[in-house]
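Page header: ASSEMBLY MODEL / three components / 907 residues total.
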Amino acid sequence: MIAPFKVSYRQDLLLAKTPAAKASYAVLLVALAVIPLVMGEFYVGELGGLFIFAIAGVGLMLLTGYTGLVSLGHAAFLGIGAYAHAIMLAQGLPFLISLPLAGVITAAFGVAIGVPTLRMSGLYLAISTLAFGSIIGTVLQKWDALTGGFDGFPVRTPTILGWKIQGAIGTYYTSLIVLVLVIWLALNILRAPLGRAMVAIRDSEISAQSMGINLAVTKSIAFGVSAGITGLAGGLYAHYVRHLAPDSFDILLSIQLVTIVFIGGLGSIHGAIFGAVFMRLLPQAIAMVRDDLPFGLGRTPGLEPSLFGLILVLVIMFEPGGINGRWMKLKHWCKSFPLHRRAASRRQKSYAKSERLR
Amino acid sequence: MSIFVADEIAMNFGGIRAVEGVSFAVEPGEVFSIIGPNGAGKTTIFNMISRIYTPSAGRMMFDGADITNVPPHTIASLGIARTFQNIELFANASLLQNLLIGRHCHSKVGLLAQLGFTAAVRDAEIAHREKAEEVIEFLGVQRYRDQMIANLPYGVRKVVELGRALCIEPRLLLLDEPSSGLNVEETEEMGHWIGDIRRDLGVTIIMVEHDMKLVHMVSDRVMALASGRILALGTSSEVQNDPEVIRAYIGGAPA
Amino acid sequence: MESVVGLLQLIINGAATGCIYGLIALGFVLIYKATEMVNFAQGEIMMLGGFAAYTFVGIFGMNYWVGSGLAVLATAAFGYLLDAVVLRRVIGQPQFAVVMLTLGLAFIFRAGAGIAWGYDSVAFVTPFTNSIVRFGDTLVLGADNLSIIFGTLVLCGVLYLFFSRTRLGIAMQASSQNQLAAYYMGIPVRRVFSLIWAISAGVAAVAAILLVPVQMVDVNSGIVGFKAFAAAVLGGFGSIPGALVGGVVVGVVEQLAGFYLPTGFQEVTSNIVLLAVLILRPQGLFGQVIRKRV
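Prediction written out in full:
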C-alpha cells in the first residue's frame, strides 16, 4: 500500500489530496457535463432528481453524520425551501435571488427549530423533529392563502440571464451546479474549526465544552447550515416536480432522507452521494424487474418502501459503515491484494453503551 | 499571587454534600495533588473548576478574576485545560483532529470565512497545525498521527488526552487520575511528562491521583480529602504521615 | 346541563383514545427502560396484533375471548422473536441506528401485512360493538369506549402485579436497572430482554383488540404509534404510570381541540403537546434529570 508523500501542512488542507484524485474528479465532472447531450430525456430527468437528493443528503449528513444530531423532519425543510422559492418566483423575483433567499429562509427555520431542541439529544431530538415535520406538513396543507392548500400550485419557469430553466435538462444543469457548490461548502466546513467542533460534539459533548466549544451556538449553526442546504434542494425540487403539493413532504420523505445518509455511510460526504444514488436507482431497478416477480409480488403497492426497509435493516445489522464503509474496505482490499488480512476489515466487538447520559 | 484560589466552595447533590466548604490556593508553577478515598469529592472539585457544576456556595478565582459563574465553554480560553478520569476523547476522529480541536479556543475566524475557506482561514489552520505538531513531537506520538482514536491502545489514548489539553496552551492544567488504567512503566512515563510540562512549559498543575508513588514523585504540595472535607494539606511526606489521613485510608475508630 | 354532559362524553371518548396511546407508549417505555432502544415499529406491531385477532375471530370464526387471547400470545411470540433474531444483534450501536432499524422494520411489517391481509380495512364483531351504556337519564356512553378504559385498567393491574410479585417480573426490573449486576446474579439478561419485547408486543396486541370496536384495522393503523410518542414523552419516557397518564392527557386534549378549535388543529395537537413538553420540561412530567459523571 502506497501512502501519498506529504511535504507541507498545506497539502493536508487541499480538497483533492493527490493528483490522481484531482484527475478522477475532473473526469467525473466532464462526464456529468456531457451526459445530457448523449442520454435520453428520461434519464437526464432522473439524474437531476438524484442531484437534488444528493444536495439534501449532504445537508443532512452535516447534521446527522458529523454533528450526531438526528433529524426525522428534514422533509419539512425541503418543503419550506420549495414553497419559499416557488412563491417568490411567482411574485416575480429572479431565480438567482430567489433560490439563495429560499436557502436563507430555510436556514432561519432550521435555527428556530434547532434552538429549542438544543438541550435534547438522540432520541428526544429524533422525536421532536418528527413532530416538527408533521406540523409543517399540516401547515402547508391548511394555509390555503399562501400554499394553495391541498391542490398546491404550478411552479413558474424561471430564466437565468435569458436562459430558460425548463424541462429535464434545465433542472439537470442547475442542480449539478448547486450540488458542486454545496459539496464545496460542506468540505470547507469540515476542514475548518466549525467542522471539527461538530465532530467533537458528536463524540463527546462534555469534553467539547471543556475545549471551548459553545454547544448551543455550534448546534444551532449546524442546524441552520443543514436546513439551508436542504432548503436549496427544496427550491430545485420545486422545478423537478413542476407542481407543488403538500403531500410530497411527508414523514416518508423525511425517512428517505435519513435512509440516504445511513445507507450511504455516516460521517462521509461520499456516503451522502452514494446514498442518494442508491435511493434513486432502487425504484428504477424495481420497475425493471417488477413484471418478472413471482406471486404477483411486483404488483404489491408496498414493495418499494418495504425493500427500503429491508435494505436499511440489513445495512444497520451487517454493515454499519454503509456503502461508503464497504467501498473503503474494497479499496483497501484492492490495494493490499494479495496480502489482505481478514482481520483488517473485521468489525470490533461492541457493547451496550448508555446514551441516557451525554 | 496565587494562580487559583478556591474559597469555601461546596457542592450539594440533592441532600448529599459531596464537597463542603473547601478552601485552597495554588501557586504559579507548582504541582498540587488532591488525594483521598473514593467519594471524597476530588472529581467534583474538578467539575466545579471546569464549570460543569456550579458550586452551591463559595467562590473560585483564577488569575485574580472570579470564575464562579462563567459559562463552561469559556474556561478553555481563560487558560484552564483538563483531562478526564475515563478518557473523553473524540473517538471517531484522528489523533491529529483531536489535537486540533484542542486549538478551538484560539480560533478567531468568522463563519462566512470558514464557509468560503478564505486564505485567512487556511493560514490560521496551518498555524494550528504547526502548534499541534509541536505537541505531537513533545509527546512522541508521530506514528499515530492519522489513526482513529478508537483504534489506539488505552495507554496512547491517555497521552493523547494530555496532548489535547496542552494544545489549549493552558496556564492551569487539571489532570484527573492521569495514571488510572496505565501499567507501571506507563505511569512512570506519565510522571516524567508531568515534570516536563511543569518545567519546560511552565504550566501549573492540579492533579487528582490515587497512585501515591506518582503523587510523591511529582507533587509540590498534596491536599487530602475525605467526605468532602480537607483532612490535611502540606508536602507529600507530611500528608502521607498525617494520622488523620492514615485513618481515612486504612480505617479505624474516628478521632 | 346538556353541555356538561356533552363535555363529559367528549372527555370519556378522549380518555378512551388516550388509553390506546398510553398502552402503546407503555410498550415504548418498557423496552426503553430495559434496553435503551426505542421501538419506532411499536404502532406497526399493534397493527399486526389487530390483524392476528381478525384472523382468529373474523376469519376462523373463533370465540371473541379465545381468539383475542391467541392473538395476544401470537403477537407476544412475534415480539420475542423480533428481539432474539434482529435487535439483539445491534446492541452497542448508537441509539439512532436502532431508531432507523425499527423504522425499517415498520415498513417491512406494513408491506407484509398488505401482502397477507390486503389493503382494505377490516373489523370483526366484538361484545362491545354498537352497544351503549346509560348512566341515569342523560348520560349515554358507548360500550366500546368504556371497554377500552376498563380493559386498560385491568391490564395495568395485571402488569403491576406481574412486575411487583412474580420472580420473572422482579428479574425484569433488576435487568432494566443494572444489566451487569443482574447478569452476575444469575439472571439470563438476554432472554429477559426478549421477554420484555414479548410483553410490550402483547400489550400492543391488547390495545389493537380494544380498539377494534371503535376503529377498523388496516395497514396504516400503526400511525397511532407517532401519537403515542407524545404520551411517552409527556410521561418522561421512563415512567410506566407516566406513559398511561400521558396517553390520557394527549387523548383528552386532542378531543377537546377537535371540538373547540378550527379543523386541522386536531391532527397536530399531539405534536404540539409533544414539542411544548420537550421545550418547557424536557424530562417530562414524571421524569428526573440525570447527568453524566466524568
